[in-house]
Each structure stands twice: as structure tokens, then as C-alpha cells.
Here is the input.
Amino acid sequence: MDCSFQDELFDDLDLYYFRQMAISSQDYDIQQKIDFEIKMRDGITKIIAACSNDVQSLEASRGLLTSNARMMAYMAELQRRRTLERGQPNRDSDDAKPCKATLAISDIRIPLMWKEEDHIKNKGDHRRYSVFCLWKIGTEIYDTEMIRNVDRTLTDMCPEDVLVFNDISPDFECVLEVYCYNMHNDLTIASTPKRIRKKLNTLSSTMGRSMGKKVQSSMENGESSLGVKFTLIATAKLNIEDIGSGIKTHNLVLENTENSPVHLPLFGHFCCRLGAQPDCMVQDVISGYLSFQGATDWTRKWCVLNQSKLQCWTNQSDSGIKKPDCIIAITKGSNIAHRNGSTMQKPNSFLLTCLEEDKKTQYTISADSKSEKERWISALEQQFVDTGAWQQACTEFIDIKSPTPKRPQFPTTRKGSLYDATSLKDSDSDFEDT
Here is the structure.
């Protein structure tokens, strides 16, 4: 087994070339991430070579597969940016872009579908598996905890991870990949999955023929033998339509594993909670005094725009302490009409139209100055864009669970219990003295 291949693989793919490409494109963030993964993979390969038990080998191989996936995502993103730079000039659009959001995935549950003779009659399939998941959004890739000893006594696989993704756009695509390993197999098989191999073949065309041939031949010759070979058994994709405050059921696309040693009976569906908090829902977008036209007079209010609502108080000191005097919901159908000098009854005024419960309500609002008016109109128009893009995530506040603390990557096994290893001689002597 050539344990140095995983390091040599990306060196031969000319990682220096990718770093230089990142530097020339001023993609320093990608460059730093690539450098970090190189160091991570170098350490993991050394750990795999020194593994003394199955648990350590499984955990190390999971880390290596995750690092490989991140490396390929960084390279693909780097090439995507390079292609955009070559294909079209960099033009800054004046159109407002929706805000970013924080996404959290939790309450993951993957049901199993054992045969009756396996689960109920407790006979038949005695195989045991180790399973973990990769969650991907762009270049952000996270793995779940390893669920070991999955057998016919288990009806659901429930990783307890809470995975948090930051600075996500509303057009995101969240990809789930479920990897499995048959515990009865030999622990000396390649850890690079077929999907990465296919992606390497695609990427090699942009790196030169000689480099591409070298990578392809090394893959075909099986030089990547290092650690455990996890098999991709299922995938799924989530998008903005799947966001919600509760747990939802999603389709799971099963991969063809007829020629694979893994035959874990998945049900074909899984459950999870995909929560999202757009920046406009957790930050005060704008605040200040505005005047509202009433039936006979104008009323001056301290206003705060956040959580897709314009909340109004009589005094600034009441903000956040007392309940708002009035709340104006900013929905997808809301709009602003500028008032010209001939129609407005007060300087720096504008007309805000909101659609609340299929009923249009109009508010004539005046700012203290022209600059304040422009500032409020810009903030409200941005809120319209954010609400339209993030949909349900802007109509209700969705709680985000705290991310799961990092677990020790390579847990050690203790022989015997802590009770058996504790000496009780001193305690006995103290008891006798009393």
C-alpha cells in the first residue's frame, strides 16, 4: 500500500498551479483553504498509517474523504471564477441583491427498511455497517458523526449533529451524500469515492494532457489504496422551498450498489429540519423618526425596520422596552411610490403600500430631510427584495440551533471501566480508622 499517494495525488495535480491561479485572481480565501486542507490531509495520511484499530481507521478515513471533497469543491470554485473572468467583463449591477442568511441543519433521521425475517424474526442478515453523511452548500462541506454498528436491530439512523452554514444566498442548493462501509470488509481499500474520481477526470482537461493522463492512470492502477473505502449509497438535494420551522420529509435518491459490498436497506426518504435566518431578520436594517399622516394631522414616531416589520413607538426610549404602538408588515407585495411636489402635503414624503391579508393598506410617510427620505426608501426597497427572495424565512422568525461542539476526531477505547481502574485502598483504610 502506498500511503503517500493521497499527498502525491494533489501535488502531481500541481497544487502550486492552483495557488498561483488563486493569487493571480486575488482569491486569497480559496488559497488559504487549499493550504489548510493540504496540511489536514498530510496529517490524516500519517494517522491512517499508524492506526491500530478499526475505530481509528474509520474516523481517519472519514476525515480524509471529507478533506478530499472540500479540496475538489475549492478547485471547482476556483475554475468557475476563472471561467467567469475570461468569459465576460466584470460589470457591477445596480440591481439590489438579496441579503445573505445563516442556515442550520438539524434533527436528521434516516429510516431503514429491513426485511421481516431480519428485524422482526431476528434472523438472517447479520451484517454491520458504519454510516456518516456529508452536507454541502457551495464550498462549505461538513460531515456528521459516524454511526457505527448499524445492524438489523436499528430502525433509524439519527446523527445528533447541528450543522450551520453562514453567508448563504437564497438560490442555494444543499446536497446530502450518505456514505456507508460494511464492517465485515477489509480495511485496506481506496478511500477516494467514484464521484471524486469522475470530477478529477473532468478537471484534468483544464490542467494539461500530461497531468490528466498521470492522474487517470494512477486512479486506474489503484495507487490510491489508503484507509477505508466508503461507498456512496444515497443523495438528496434541498433548496429554499424546504426551509421551515419544523421537521420535513424529503426524498432520498438511492445509488446503484448492485456491484457493491454495501446493501444497507434504506427506506428512500429522510427527515431533517432546515432552518434559515436572513440577515434582515436578525439585524436592525434602519431606524429613525418618521411622520405618518392621519385623518386630520401628522404623527411623529420612532421607527425600526427589522424582521420584515416596520415597528413604531412614540419615543425612542420606548424601543425594545414597550410594545410597539403599531406594526406594519413588509410583505412581498409591498411597494413605494414617490410623491412629487404638487401632490405631497409635507416635504420629503412618500407613499408605502402594503398587502396585509389580501388587503392593501396605504401609509403616507414623511422623513425629516431629503437624505433621510432616500435612506428610508433604499432600506425599504431592499427589504422588498429580501422578502421576495427568502420567502417563508422572512415571514416568520425561525430559531437556529447552536452548532454541535467539535468531537474528538479519533476517540480512544479504554479497557475495562473507570471503576475497576480506581484504587480503593486509601478509602478502605480511612473507613477502618473511623
Observations:
- Confidence is low (pLDDT under 50) at residues 1-9, 185-193, 217-225, 408-432.
